[in-house]
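Case study B.
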Amino acid sequence: MELLAFGNTGWGDELFYATLMTIAVSITAMLIGFLFALIFTPLKLSKNKFLNFIANSYTTIIRGVPELLVIYLFFFGGTGAVMFVASIFGYNEYIEINAFITGAFAIGIISGAYSTEVFRGALQSIDKGQFEAANVLGLNKFGKFFKIILPQTLRLAIPNLSNVWQITLKDTSLISVTGLVEIMRQSYVAAGSTRDPLFFYSFAAVLYLLLTFVSMKLINRLEIKYSRGF
Amino acid sequence: MDLELMINSFPKLLSAALITLKLLSVSLIIGLFIGLIFAILRLNKNKFINKFAYGYSYVFRGTPLLVQIFIIYFGLGQIEYLRSTVLWVILKEPYWCAIIAFALNTGAYTSEILRSAFQTIKPGIVEAGKSLGISNKVIFYKIQIPIAIRQSLPAYGNEIILMMKGTSLASTVTIMDLTGVAKYIISTTFKPIEVFIVAGGIYLFMTFIIHNVIKFLEKKYSFN
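Model:
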């Protein structure tokens, strides 16, 4: 227990901040994933074959290639890509991208592929009659989407999105290879300097379990809220 | 684009893919056994056994695979007692540590898949077996297990693909699998995109094969 003391003598406060970092990266990545889903879900459902192909390639490649490989691509390739874009605009200094942004972006792209599939499935399982009824009520495009379709999509999507959240949360442990100080990285540092890896990695496992447990409880509440009337 | 690098690294990555496949197949076989045992324990009416099996799958599904590998590879070596037993022969090898972690992890997911498959078997089928005078044991092995395996094929196919991606974590404990070799080439040449295309292509090819084999099996064992 001494090992977990707060302050200079233990690793309690470091691990606490690392946990906050894990939460922050997970939420950012999940939001970036939603952004990708927002772009790619319509492409997937579009009748245009070319747009379909783009969206399908995205979800197939990301879901078929290991997360770690994607992270290495961003970690080693991210700086080069940003500097290349900057050089087009005439900026030739060295740019270092922050590990948080690289990590959140890499995990976000992965999370987005899963979210896209979830939203596609949810949208497709909404009864056609709902679209027709919205048309009959004379709602415009926005009204139709936000008042009729979106609430129903969310109800159907939330249980599966909670799986995506779990995957995203666990994937953030992989960002530790880029040096971002989240739970895994901090445990690695602590284990190295105290020579007590068993304790610190087990404690990391407990922290992750706690995070998944608490988030499941919160998501269950959301699920109840969105399934009112069913 | 550095085509020469892509061509040169292809054979290296391909031979590393064999290690990935080896890790995958060994851990899947062990994991399937673990999964089957725990699925049966989950269906047990004894509350204690039931809770134990649930706890196992909850812990392994709720924590990242990376933590599990690190606990087994770095953590267990710390216990002095273990170092003096026969187990140490296995646990000092990163290869076996990775396989133990993968097998326990996929075992947890497999047990959930099989449990839900067992639960979806209509009671009428079991009752039909009983009314024909077939013993409970035979009903279980000859009726329930084959049906459960068929039911769980789609979900298990996904699990195989997830596990294949999971084996990439073996590279964090010094095993030179496909991802390990890819990382090595990237960090010596600083050409991440080229290497990603080749290594990712090999992974996608393996995903494609697994996907189609499962599809074929699903068709072969479909009920009608």
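Chain A has a mean pLDDT of 89. The remaining cases will be described in the next quarterly update.
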